[in-house]
Amino acid sequence: MNSEKLIQVTPVILCGGSGTRLWPLSRTDFPKQFLCLTGNEGLFQQAALRLASLGNADIQGASPIIVTGEDHCFLGCEQLREIGVELGCALLEPVSRKTAPALTLAALAAVEGSTDPVLVVTPADQTVANAAAFSAAMQQAVAEAANATIVIPCVTPDKPETGFGYIQVAKSLQGKAEVIQLVQRFVEKPDANTAQTYLNDGGYYWNAGMFVLKASVWLKARGQCRPDILLATQAAREKRGEDNTFVRLGKAEFAAIPSESVDYAAIEQCPGSSFPIKMVPLDAGWNDLGAWDAVWNVLPKDEASNAHLGEVLTTDSRNTLVHATSRLVSLADAENLIVVETSDAVLVADKSRSQDVKHIVNQLQGTKREEQTLHRKAYRRWGWYDSIDEGGRSRVKRIQVKPKASLSLQKHHYLAEH
Fold it and tell me: What is the pTM of this model?
């Protein structure tokens, strides 16, 4: 096909969020999107590989734009290097401002040089069991979005879930495949009875937080629905540094941007407006891994429905999840338990109450304990260090320096560091 007729696609991976309900594995300095919870790659790596596979005879993909915090940019780049995906650019947020400013930043970066690609926007912390089905649905969404339509891939609900927002659809579009439908309205996270009603009635889908749309369409919608966010984001971008790969934004200007999600700031206002918005079902084994019980759902299990990672020994145990990181964990006559072991913290919880882990994190924040924020192992531009021992005024670290990288010498007046 003539290259001029190819649909130009730029993947956008949103890497914000801290994943507090997956503590102690997920922490502020190493959040869940960079964890390897299923398979051999981390969730962020899985997202990058899925988006890199969207190209076909009609679609030409570009290197991804990632939007993340300054503390995570080197970790993200290292994980992309490990899987052989070249970074387009990393937009580094000084503070979290939710997804609407993040997508606006990505759209502004994408339209530079008089281009106007279709953006395929996805969070970095989801898992998909069927990669081929994901690609097929996204390619269909891209073809629709090339006509200046906003397309949302949605998941068909299989239970009355109260943790997701819902999308209600209208009748199928004329001349299109039955799966592409016009969005009628967005619905907030429902209570259990309302969620069951949605499931019984049909026509309702889970909002998976993914969007497919042209960069110019998002900027126009942003300017019409929330011009304050657009103007503030433009101001922060104008104060960016000179590096075009690691784009550091004006800190004061970025902090002044209103913190809003994509849904609230524009998408929910699109049905019935001048911006057509449609839905394509995503039947690909999607899961957002929001808590440890969701992780248990997607992992392979033994005959007693136990899902175990690491060194684990059990006897007479059922329906358990054990994630052992640094030592042997054993269970005897346990049922419906979650046990997550790391080098400096251990979580034990009833599987049905895994959402309550966030309350533990709140207590850690209140007491200012480092276990909420830091892992022993920390990643830097030059490599990583692992704090293997600390006591009194001494600290011992194991350091790995990347080839041709370097780090500065340090001197501590009140601490002996080896």
Answer: 0.85
